[in-house]
Each structure stands twice: as C-alpha cells, then as structure tokens.
Amino acid sequence: MKDTPLLIAVAPNGARKLKTDHPQIPLNAEELSETALNCAAVGASMIHLHVRDENNRHSLSVGAYKEAIQEIQKAEPDIFIQVTSEAVGIYSAEHQFEMIHVLKPNAVSIGLREIRDLDEHIITDHFHKMREADTFPQLILYNDHDLNMYYDWVKRKVIPGKAYPILLVIGKETPEGSFDNGVLSAEITDKLPASSWMICAFGPNEYPAGQLATKLGGHIRLGFENNCELANGSIAKNNAELISQMVNYLASENIAVANYQQAIEIMRPDW
Prior knowledge:
Elements: E1 8-10, H1 29-42, E2 46-49, E3 51-52, E4 58-59, H2 62-75, E5 80-84, H3 93-103, E6 107-111, H4 112-115, H5 120-133, E7 136-141, H6 144-155, E8 164-170, H7 186-189, E9 194-201, H8 206-215, E10 219-222, H9 239-252, H10 260-266
Helix pairs in contact: 1-2, 1-9
C-alpha cells in the first residue's frame, strides 16, 4: 500500500457551510464544477460531492446530483466523483440507499453509524445492489467502535467482499468517542482491514494529520468541508490553496500524487 501513489480528494463544501462561513464555498453546480477544475489543476484527482436544495440546505436529490455531476464532468473529465449519502439528521437509511440505487454514482461515501440500525439482511441486499451497479462505497469510520463494526461486517459477510476503502475521520466528536492523530501509527494503519484508507481531519489539524497519514501510505481528503485554514494560520482563498499546500509538501517528500486512473483503482473495493 505504501508504494501506491497518494490520492488527494477535495471536499469543497460539506452539508452545512454557507457563504457566510467563506465566500468561496461552492454551493451550486457551476461553482462546484469550477472548484473541481481548479483543484484538479493543482493535484486533486477526486471530489467528494455534496449538493444543496434551492435554499442551500443539504440535499440527497438525485436531480441535483445529476446536474452537478454533469457540470463537473464537462469542466474536468479527469476527476473521480464521489457523492455523499450523509443523512445530516434529515434522511433515513432507506432514503440514503434509495438515492444510491437510483443515481448509481461511480462512488459514494457511507457512514456506518448512519445505517447500522437496519436489519443486517437489508444491509447485505443494499451492498449487493451497489456491487451489481459497480458503485464503489467508501465507508466512513469515526472511532474504534465503527472500525470494529466494519471488521465484523466484513468477517460475517454482512457486506460482500474482502475489504473496502475506508475514511478515518479525525476530531469529530461523537457519543462513542472519536479518532485523534494517535490512530496514525504504523502499528494501527498497517493492520487496517481495508482495500485503501484515507483520512480527513477537522480545523487546523487537517494539514498535520495529512502529513502523518502520507508517511504511512494513507490517502487524504482536504477542503472547506472540514477546514479553511492554511498551515500558517491564514484563511485559504479557496479549496485549491489547501490542495496546493499539500502537493508542495508531498513534492518535498518525493511522494507521488495519484492521477485520475490511479484514483479509480485506489477507490475500488475488493469485492
């Protein structure tokens, strides 16, 4: 895994942030396509996509996703698009899966804690449908409880296949605890039951956590969804500045950055 080029994904907006948080938060399809183009130009090979409704609220609208995906592909065909299925307290697990099966995206992120209350046979059926549609799930894990649940589901075939891409979220407070930078040690990451692993971290910790992950062969997700600050404490002008900062660091460490085709293979589950 450490010999694999490092994938940089941009998470440009998230579910909640607005122009009042940063004037360059992309909210509509046109702004998202411009962000994808600019971030790909400096080294991102994947975009983690959230869309909004007419009032700029979080949405899982298939129509809004199709519009945004079409605009992004038109502006920058060489960026891998992953949509979110995040519920944000608005959608049920069944609504989340309904979006996935209707949209049939190339890739989708799924928080295990948001679907864990479904009957396991239903979860199995949903994941088989994604495999049949060739939709790549990335499983979002917030703490050791989530990691153990993921491992158990794979072992017992609740979800098909041998291993999945996983995202370790660092610094997100949850009732069951949260990962901190301590998860980024070889003793832990070398044994992760994943086809590939990626991290995202909140606030000013985004950059130092990203540096730690890259030294261990992990991939990184950066962007205004989780952080707007550069390493020097100033506010980034746009998402592309956060990507450029990390690319410059990787160049100084002689770490190769994944291109579009490599990103697809990195995000492919071991079905």
